[in-house]
Amino acid sequence: MQTVTLAEARSKALLASHGLEIADERIVDSSPAAVAAAQAMGMPVVVKLNGDRIAHKTERGLVRLNLSTPDAVREAADALLAAATPDDGEVDLIVARQVRGHRELIAGLVRDPQLGPAVMLGIGGIFAEAIADVAFRLVPLSRLDALELIEDLATQKLLGEFRGEPAIDREKLADVLLALSACGEQHPEVVSIDVNPLIVCDGVPIAVDALVEVEVAR
Q1: Among 61, 79, 106, 200, which is least packed by CB within 10 angstroms?
Q2: Within a domain: residue 123?
Q3: Residues 86-102 pLDDT 10s
Q4: Strands 63-67, 210-216: pairing kind
């Protein structure tokens, strides 16, 4: 067996099938299609290079943010497609609505050889390293388990009203955790899930990036 990382689009599709709320996005294969998608969903948008062999986009500069005009989207799409290497295999583009918020969370799933899968929730963004606030619960989660996992975070003030934004909707956040639990329970081949970041927009946590690792036969 070997562990492989699903492309971002495939990872999100799997998680969305279990109820995870994903930022509005389109998968396209050319710069004209990227412009059309951006105009359809409304700018500003984010454009990313997507492919089964592309896991760490930020380190390679494969993410372009805050694109507010058709020309900016076209230039970003052309540059990203040109940056693909033969090792990346088949690629396309993700055009996603730019989600804005002052708070970020991280969520995911890890699979322990002895204990099995566990759902993780933590404080993300600029506070992540300074606070190192992370909590875990074993799968399967009930809604009560998910709400208690949220309560397990030490930094509860960041979950309340913050910089003019409403408090985080805990029921919506519990939905995220239940989606991760369901995915881990129903897909034993899933080794790990990384949803980072979950951007809190008007109190609602929205997944803007996700990667799923699965174990497959060699």
Answers
A1: 61
A2: yes
A3: 988 899 999 999 999 88
A4: unpaired
